[in-house]
Amino acid sequence: MDKDRLIGVLLVVVGIVGIIIYGLLLWNPWTGTLYTMTVLAITAFVAVAALLGIVAWIGWTMATTPPPPPIEAEVSSEEKPTEEAKEKETKSS
């Protein structure tokens, strides 16, 4: 089995085990409601913190990245005045 498939299988197993453990933490009949509420509060905090962390990261990237140079319309070689034409134009003026 190549390395990518092994990592994929490992991620699937970790995900399924995590779901089972989380479910047991929420619906364990031997623990009280306080325990369940604590698990939910931690979950909500981690989810909101992750979302706001991503928003802050995007903001930091936008604030610290210099703006790109303006895009100038390309002019074909026929329309571009050559240096000689510019000199002639300035001499005749």
Question: Which properties best describe this structure?
Answer:
93 residues; mainly alpha; 0% strand
Total number of strands: 0
Helix content: over 70%
Structural class: mainly alpha
What low-confidence regions span 5 or more consecutive residues with pLDDT below 50?
none
Distance between the termini: 78 Å
Radius of gyration: 31 Å
Average residue-wise pLDDT: 84
**Sheet of most strands:** none
How many helix segments?
A: 3
Question: Beta-strand percentage?
Answer: under 5%
Question: What is the ordering of alpha helices and beta strands?
Answer: HHH
Shape: elongated
Commentary on this structure:
This protein is mostly helical. Among the domains are: 1-30; 32-66. It contains 3 helices and no strands. The chain has helices spanning 3-26, 33-64, 83-92. The longest helix is centred in the middle third of the chain and has 32 residues, at 33-64. The radius of gyration is 31 Å and the shape is elongated. 0% of the residues are buried.
